Amino acid sequence: MRQQASPSGALGGVPSAARPLAFSETIGLFMPANGKTVADVGVLFVSPWGLEEMCLRKFWRIIADDLSARGIASLRFDYPGTGDALDRSDFSGGLAIWDDAVVAAANRLAAMSGCSRIVIAAQGLGTVIALRAIRRLDGVAGLVALAPVTSGRAYLREMQIWAKMVEEGLGIAKEHRAAEGIVIAGLAMPEEIAADIRKFSLATLEEKPAPQCLVMKRPDRPGDTEFAAKLVALGAAVIEADYKGYDDLVSNPATAVMPQAARSAVVEWITKLAAALPPCPTEPRPETIQPAVLHGPNFREEGLNFGEGGRLYGVLCEPLGERKGATVLLVGTAYDRAAGWARSGVRLARDLAARGIPSLRFDTANVADSPPVPGMPDQVLYHEAQSNDVSAAVDVIEERHLLPVVTSGRCSGAYLAFRSALQDARIQGVVAVNPFVFYWDPKRDIDEWLRFVPRTLGDYKGRLLQAETFQRLLQGRIDIARAATNIGRALGRRLARHAMPLIHMLPQNRVMRREVVGAFHTLSNRGVPVALLYSENDVGLDHFAEQFGSSARGLRRYKNVDFTILEGADHNLTPEPARLSYFDTLSAVATALDPQP
């Protein structure tokens, strides 16, 4: 290790987000070493794919921050056609396209950090890609394999089962489910990629990938133990550790629990490996970071750090042609990364640019790639401090001379978009999709709601008539007691609608009523257009009906508010017609405003 002349990871005690950089049709996030000493080793994160990648995003960032504090630089990135990377229409090169991205990322890591050795940390499908790419890399000192894939065919079968479980959980109608291919959480794997994955098995591994290896094993997966044994047979020095908390991490980005024991095991192993390596023979001279810019057919995207100390990460998407209307600020949902569920944030931003509308998508503090603010609670959803992050994003838009702003989001993002418009006059339009509430009672337990949020009564009635529901009951895959409790709650809310005036008079509801009515009056007085879009049978309709009635008659006093029901849509707007309706509404609200010079 060498001495660090001046730390660069934080300013004024506020941790910085990783620095974006562009290469090979993608955006990477480089986290420089920020310890008292700097190791001659960098860590390259090679991600899994699909829903697993979305759930892992925050975990990768936490480990990268830990390593930075110990003097170890790192880089994480998206494969072409995924995340914030550019789209591709041609995947005829198969998995080699993603292999090439790993090699390019390793070269960028070496150039940015000055290190001559790297450790690759890979999870799930990322282990397959890492094993293929390592053969083309020099200076690989170690491999961390978390939940490794040992059979490509078995992995793809597991993805298909997992996809069905996700579709059932979201209540996606059968006509909107993928009929073929590997599609999970709205993300489709190119068939050429899947074809190469099918060819992989442990038998194809003929050389040790690295001299030192750490294998994080799931206790119920014998293949993980076989993977470790194979590395030992090939001559690698292997340490095995239990991957406790894996299932809780990868089930859902909104409720993902960070596996602290696995985090510690990975960080300690890499730190020990780095300390045992010889020092760098010459003083590294890290490359100067250039703006992280990607160019598409009708857009220019730039990865940004902003906010105090560069604490937030986002992507500004601007049209290449004439700018029209307001800039759209896309506010993320729950703990999904800014790219969005099924890359909805990326697709929406680029479609808006095609119509001349700029946008900024970003991660709020402690979500995905933006680190937490010291002193703030770990659970940030529905916390008033998130409005500070929105204000910081609006500051960026103002600095780029792209005012005014229209905020938009789904679920918790819709709530934040709505509430932020009350606090910032630069926000002159709101498009809220499936907001659960318009005011959050701070006494309410967010974690409890995230795990056990009930559906609407109409949704339960529809599901009871489905044959697949009876099949799940017979297989013991439905928690009958919890379902009965939630149905009871939904029935109670339905009955409460018919006694709205009396319900609003109850002490516990007076604050809610006052806050909601006051918020809508404020935006009405300012003339801020508000578009409310709800999926048919969305659970947020219960709260809406409690405030404005089932027929939305309570909205008639607000001429600035438009209310739309999206038929056949699930909470995540999976069906294409629902997404198009959202896009058209957002475009109309944005283009109705005049851009400020």
Automatic annotation (TrEMBL):
It comes from the Bacteria. The keyword Iron does not apply. It holds the Pfam family Abhydrolase_6. One of its GO terms (molecular function) is hydrolase activity. The keyword Hydrolase applies. Residues 59-278 form the AB hydrolase-1 domain. SUPFAM superfamilies: alpha/beta-Hydrolases. Keywords: Hydrolase. This is Alpha/beta fold hydrolase. It comes from Ciceribacter thiooxidans.
